[in-house]
Amino acid sequence: MPHAKPKPKAARPSLAKSPTGIQGLDELTGGGLPKGRVSLVCGKAGSGKSLLAMEFLMHGAVRYGEPGVCMNFEETEEKLAANVASLGFDLRDLTRRKKLLVDYVFIERSQITEAGEYNLDGLFVRLAHAVNTIKAKRVVLDSVQALFAGVGDSATLRSELQRLFRWLEDHNLTAIVTGEAGIDTLTRHGLEEYIADCVIALDHRVTEQISTRRLRIVKYRGTSHGTDEYPFLIDEDGISVVPITSLALTHKALMDRISTGVPALDEMMEGKGFFRGSSVLVTGTAGTGKSSLAANFTRAACTRGEICLYFTFEESPSQILRNMRSVGISLEPWVRKGLLRFSAMRSTSTGLEGHLAVIHKLISQLQPSVVVIDPITNLVSASGNYDVKSMLVRLVDFLKVQQITSMFTNLTFAGDPQERTAAAVSSLMDTWIVLRDSKPNGRPRRELYVLKSRGMAHSREVRELIVSKRGLDLGVVLSDHTVATHVAGQ
Amino acid sequence: MSNCGGRVTSLADSGRNPSNGMKKSAAKKRQSKTSRSDFFILRLYIAGQTPNSITAIANLKKICEEKLHGKYRIEVVDLLEKPQLAKGDQIIAIPTLVRRLPPPVKKIIGNLSKTESVIVGLDLQPAR
């Protein structure tokens, strides 16, 4: 809403689009729904069809100057008003200002007897009347399903629906028709057969007790679109979809460098630190200083006056602030200044896709230049069997397109092959910093080395990592890490 | 609508919203002659003079004459002229016949060519 959206990709001139105003969906569709056409949104009960349709109307009325008519077969005006009020829309006010018109169509089957031929001109008359009253440009029919329950003659109904969709297009109305999902079909009554231009399927699945909503563009004539399922989120702002912002690897690699927050670590990276817009993975066993490193990185960003977004999945923000104080890093002033923003979520509160949707949304709102995800391990564990990698590819791609420098920490377990959880993500990462414990001569110490860093001649040394009340620093050069791991492997 | 006969009125010419006042006053007038529950107020919704609409009007008049013997009143509403009236009676199909009196409200959709269905649907007592 208040924030500016990234410009959708240039739509083909032949196909005009009507923006939905739903975050992510307009990017996915290259600008919105086909203008002057009928789109079908289908899914099971509770999958978010009605919400998507209503948002399309509301945003149309409020943001795009396109009044809308909602023919609702399921909910009364009062209930609808209550529903959209929670999203911050005042349906009554919009109705008063003739930006919106809701016509509740109620069919009581038990009242109705059929005695001879009929058509659905009554519905047409009502719709035309509503459209004319407010000079509507958008129409929602939610859900036409109810007609099948209310009207016995389905042959008549089918031909009438076809006539209705044609009527909408003849009047250059951009419409959403919602339909309940069938068992083996997209919709129970095969509505998809009549809608040629755009079909969107919504899904709400629960896997391992974690629910995830997904959206798929089944067809969209004349527009290239991904056929993947995209996770989406329903929260107090309505629907937001996590799109892939780049279908190809087209983001620009920046040459700017930014400090890691630890001068000695900058030293190891050509004396300049990370590339701006790159992704950094920090792995290590428990207590090796991953969060401290992330905090140093955060502080450096805030000191430069940049906005930093810190996602935490294990500790509350106050816990992190306290812990960081103990190692000499004070982050509170930056929180107060509004440069540092924490977002704390339990990893099990939602699925990976849900988390990514939240991350995506907050990033779009705050436009940070630095993002920390601490730790990514929890996200991976929340994902169940779902392909973690493709989701993370999207996130990393998104961050890179936005030229955000990102740091992901990853907890590894002693004795575990380092690659296990890291395998999914390491190839996506430009820089991989490894932290570990070692006990040479019985004296425990922390060690750090840069396993990889694309595009720079980084140091291959293993350094001691010193965490003290005065913060993080690197100690003496211990060895070349290739040798060290080789030795450890023996 | 002038061809609809003496007992058929056209609401299309009336500027009033017929959902309230009209049926009561009409019912009251008749109450002196017949008991309230015997009197039928039937409203037929059409959308222009389509073949189905014309058939429905003719069928309805015929059935009423046979079964109701003057204890009825037919109102014809043309939604092309009064589209705002469609919402009140929740009209979807055309033609739709609404039995407004006696209660409960009943609806019959179609051109009323299935006489038996109309009689059952309106709950018409056999003529006494």
Describe the structure.
The complex is a heterodimer of chains A (490) and B (128). Helix content of chain A is 32%, strand content 27%. Chain A is α/β, with parallel strands linked by helices and 490 residues long. Chain A has 2 domains: 17-241, P-loop containing nucleotide triphosphate hydrolases (Rossmann fold, 3-Layer(aba) Sandwich), CATH 3.40.50; 257-489, P-loop containing nucleotide triphosphate hydrolases (Rossmann fold, 3-Layer(aba) Sandwich), CATH 3.40.50. In chain A, the strands form 4 sheets. A 9-stranded mixed sheet of chain A has the order 5-4-7-8-3-9-10-11-12, with helices on both faces. Chain B has a single domain, classed as Glutaredoxin (3-Layer(aba) Sandwich), CATH 3.40.30.10. Chain B has a 5-stranded mixed sheet, sandwiched between helices. Chain B is globular and about 35 Å long. Chains A and B meet through strand 6 and helix 5 of A and helix 2, strand 5 and helix 3 of B. Strand 6 (112-114) of chain A pairs parallel with strand 5 of chain B, so a sheet runs across the interface.
Approximate strand percentage of chain B: 15-25%
Sketch the major β-sheet of chain B: 5 strands, mixed
**Largest interface chains and counts:** A-B, 26 and 36 residues
Q: What does the main sheet of chain A amount to?
A: 9 strands, mixed
Count the strands of chain A? 23
Distance separating the two termini of chain A = 58 Å
SSE string of chain B, helices as H and strands as E:
EHEHEEEH
Mean pLDDT of chain A: 83
Could you give the topology of this structure?
The complex is a heterodimer of chains A (490) and B (128).
Chain A: E1 17-18, H1 25-28, E2 33-34, E3 38-43, H2 49-62, E4 68-72, H3 77-85, H4 91-96, E5 100-104, E6 112-114, H5 121-134, E7 138-142, H6 145-150, H7 154-170, E8 174-180, E9 198-207, E10 210-220, E11 229-235, E12 238-241, E13 257-258, H8 263-268, E14 274-275, E15 279-284, H9 290-303, E16 308-312, H10 317-326, H11 332-337, E17 340-344, H12 352-366, E18 370-374, H13 376-381, H14 388-401, E19 405-411, H15 419-426, E20 431-438, E21 445-453, E22 461-468, E23 471-480, H16 481-489
Parallel strand pairs in A: 3-8, 3-9, 4-5, 4-7, 7-8, 15-19, 15-20, 16-17, 16-18, 18-19
Antiparallel strand pairs in A: 1-2, 9-10, 10-11, 11-12, 13-14, 20-21, 21-22, 22-23
Helix pairs in contact in A: 12-14
Chain B: E1 8-10, H1 21-31, E2 40-46, H2 51-68, E3 72-78, E4 96-101, E5 106-109, H3 115-122
Parallel strand pairs in B: 1-3, 2-3
Antiparallel strand pairs in B: 2-4, 4-5
